[in-house]
Amino acid sequence: MHITDEDNPRLPYLRDKTSKLTTSPGCYIMKDSTGKIIYIGKAKNLRNRVSSYFRKWQDHLPKVWKMVSNVNDYDFIVTDSEFEALVLECSLIKLHTPKYNILLKDDKGYSYIKVTDEPYPRLQAVLQKSDDNAEYIGPYTSSFAVKQAVEEANKVFKLPTCTRVFPRDIGKARPCLNFHIKRCMGVCTGEFTQEDYRRTVEQAVDYIRNGSAQSVERLTAEMERAAEDLEFELAARLRDRIAAIKKAAESQKIIDETVPDCDIIAVSANSEVAAASVIMYRGGRLMDKADYYLGDLDESGAMLEQFVLSFYAMKDSAPKNIVLEEEPDNREMLEQYLREKYGHAIYITVPKKGHMLRLSTLAKSNANEYISVRVGRTGREVAGLEELAKALGMTRPPRFIECYDISNLASSDMVAGMVVFENGRPCKKRYKRFSIKTVAEQNDYACMAEVIERRFRNYFEKTDEGFATLPDLILLDGGNGHVNTIAPVLKRLDIDVPLYGLVKDDRHRTRAIATGDGEISIVKSRAAFDLVTAIQDEVHRVAITYQRSKRKKSSFALSLTAVKGVGEKKAAKLITAYRTKEALKNAGLEEIMKTAGVNESTARELMDIIEEL
Predict the structure, then answer these.
(1) Per-residue pLDDT for 431 more than 80?
(2) Kindly report the CA angle at 326 between 320 and 331, in degrees rounded to 5?
């Protein structure tokens, strides 16, 4: 969004003040008309950084645009180094809590794992302890981790999660689905004694307390003793339990002794707002997970840096390892700040492969799901837009995507379809269809140029509300040739919108994105690939449906012009008035005469032709 003097009449004064500003590092403190501090930032070069906010026609993200629109004046503090500016920035933000800085609240409660006090105990995730003689494990700061741990233990040890009460309901009904799909041991069948069941619960609790490695070690010893005592049935059950734990350890992310103490942080954004998710591992287990709404979208590197600083400002301790999904601004300074704050070595890493990358993906998935709830979209849609923006080098996910496709049969009935996706979903009220007017022979490039010209001429002329909004991304159903044809058209019209083509393979499936001088593969970015494929399929459907509709009308009209005295215009009047063959067949002689403007004899000939169609 461009910032102009109309948006903020104080901009000329602010530009003049900034032109005299020092080039030293330091902090700048933005204030509104009441003198309230609304934003605090740091800079390596104060003049360059502050002037970037106030330049004429400077393009800003919505969050920055809102802030700059409300700036009445600013103060600044010069420091000896950029690192000192970072430390000062953190201190000032904590003191003043400015509106446009990332501000987090740490208001988490506690959760417990409950082992119920009954003949056949159950494992449950609860938010508080009760005076009921049950055993409580905890407290844990993360309800997420507690729920995941209970679900994992119930699954691995096949403990019942149904509403039946034991021993009251043993043998009274057939086992439920969980038993048949091997998710429950089947206490209701009566095949397990109370002693066997309680031993299994104890093993599940040991698994939760100590992790999979120690559980396997203890169960293996029990299995060997059972075999030595010739209790082969018990030994077989323990063997299966050990196998289930090992299998769970391969994929589950709750208890994993190979993961060092670390915080794994990911930020997700749609076209306007952002959220962050932090997954915390301590002692080889997922100890906590926290989600934070960050508000209006900012530049990704700066937003990630601000979040890290705000998050650890609330914490009394930090692990040795902090895992991020991408490089933040000033990583080395962040590490130095955190090391000095906590008094021990801290390393920020960005994994590119392996187990830590999978955990980073898990954090990203949680952030996607959290923001999807806030914006009313699925996590898949949020991820698709973000992956697409990243692949195309866009600063933020596109809100409005327009896609165009040409459809024709040789050189007849040449048409185009335009579809619009808003925040990853079809916005059918903005769809448009075009009949090609200036191209006489089949030429997809020329047809596409005509359509793009007409679409954006309508944008400037404001004649149609459907054309009133500029898209954030333009996609063409075609390769580099289409992109190189349309790019000059957009430049001539002064339309500054990213433009790409959609390339298909021999089976007419999406293969890559054309840039004009090459291709970008998105096959590995599954969510982006699915989104682009959906857009390409939809625009093809719209274009070809319109082309077939026009072809039917053209064929119908051609039949009517076989009658002497009936030309294309009179045939068009009849088709427009009656729309379908059936409606035209039901029309009376006088109606045909009046609509087409013909005499009785010609109308009768028309009726004979219509009956034969």
Answers:
(1) yes
(2) 55
545 in the same domain as 487: yes
138, two tokens? 């905890």
Q: Please state, in angstroms and rounded to a whole number, the distance separating the CA atoms of residues 503 and 491.
A: 23
Which residues span the domain enclosing 193? 111-251
In a domain, 101, yes or no: no
> Is there a single domain that holds both residue 521 and residue 429?
yes
- Tokens found for residue 539: 């625009």
Q: Is 10 inside a domain boundary?
A: yes
Number of Cβ within 10 Å of residue 10's Cβ equals: 17
CA 440 to chain centre: 43
The per-residue pLDDT for range 510-520, each reduced to its tens digit, is 888 999 999 99
Looking at the fold, whether 366 and 466 belong to one and the same domain comes out as no
Nearest 10 degrees: CA dihedral of 148, 153, 154, 156?
120
Average pLDDT of the segment spanning 479-493 = 94
Residue ending a domain, among 251, 281, 301, is: 251
Does residue 383 belong to any structural domain of this protein? no
- Measure the CA–CA gap between 502 and 188, rounded to whole angstroms: 57
Count other C-beta atoms under 10 Å from residue 260's C-beta. 14
Sign of the CA dihedral with 470 first, then 471, 476, and 482 last: positive
pLDDT-derived band at 37 (thresholds 50, 70, 90) equals very high
Beta-strand pair 321-324/262-269: parallel
Specify whether the CB–CB gap between 3 and 68 falls below 8 A: yes
Is residue 105 included in any domain, yes or no? no
Query: How far apart, in whole angstroms, are the C-alpha atoms of residue 105 and residue 310?
Result: 9
Lookup result for tokens 């209970």: 150
My answer on whether 326 and 221 are in the same domain is no
**H runs (alpha helix) in 376-416:** 379-392
Q: Do 597 and 591 contact (CB within 8 A), yes or no?
A: no
